[in-house]
Amino acid sequence: MDFLLLFKAAIMGLVEGITEFLPISSTGHLILAGQLLDFWTLEKRDMFAVAVQIGAIAAVIYEYWGKLWGALIGAFTGQEQGRRLSINLIVASIPIVIIGLTFGDVVKEYLFNAITVAIALIIGGFIILWAERRQHDIVTHEVDDLSFKQATLIGLIQCLALFPGTSRSGSTIIGSLFLGISRKAAAEFSFFLGIPVLMGAGLLDMYKMRHELHSNDFGVLAVGIIVAFISALIVIRALIRYVSKHDFTVFAYYRIGFGLIILATWWTGWVHW
User: Fold this and answer.
1) Does 108 fall in a domain?
2) Are 152 and 90 in contact (CB under 8 A)?
């Protein structure tokens, strides 16, 4: 067993767990961390960046099990709030599933690189700053009360996250503000929306790579997923407390600053991205 590889997998899992639900792009950070650590082969690294998200999503299921189970039961029993949440999650997941299955491999081939990530980080940072300076009239305060139209639009907005560096949580939460959804409800719906999308993407990528994976490789994946689960659980609880009192301006400045650092190190040749 290569303990250095396992250590790198743990770092990658930590990066995933910390960044998955913050509006700073987990995929972008995983691409950068993977290059800096010279982690695994390129093909396995790209697969790991998607598969490790299973750990973060497992943290959502663990933290919100009661609400998610209620939604599932409500879908079959006709309980209004549970049925509505279930339908909204299904509807919002459809666009990215269709587009992801159609263009996912193309995105990985041409856009999974540091420069794309840097540009997306900077552009997304300025969008967040612009969005936070606008007045938002909140009409939906709880995740159970989202309308069918709101869920559909959030699902379309989520498709922007296919571009590495954009941030799935950032695009859905900021987009939700423009739809009149409270920060807490937007964050929770973004958490829930990641369950079918990221879980499915992770399992699909591992299935595609099944002939390339060896028994030791599953240990590397397990370490990353476990670390991602633990760190994501901490971040989820902290983020819900944070969004109840603060906006996302600090994350916007982080995105812009980090993106500029990546471009500067690439331009000067300090780091061979």
Assistant:
1) yes
2) no
Residue 260 domain boundaries: 3-268
C-alpha dist (Å) from residue 115 to 5, 37, 188, 252: 25, 17, 31, 18
Is the residue at 273 inside a domain? Answer: no
What predicted TM-score, i.e. pTM, was given to this entire model?
A: 0.89
Does residue 174 form part of some domain? yes
Is 23 strand, coil or helix? coil
R_g over Cα of the chain: 18
Task: Kindly give, in sequence order, each residue whose CB lies less than 8 Å from that of residue 88, ignoring residues fewer than 6 positions away.
Answer: 146, 148, 150, 151, 189
In a domain, 151, yes or no: yes
Number of domains within the chain:
1
Residue 37, SS3?
helix
Per-residue pLDDT of 22-61, as tens digits, reads 999 998 999 999 999 999 988 899 889 889 999 999 999 9
Contact indicator for 81, 144 with CB cutoff of 8 Å: yes
- Size (the chain), residues: 273
- The helix (H) or strand (E) run that includes residue 190 is helix 183-208
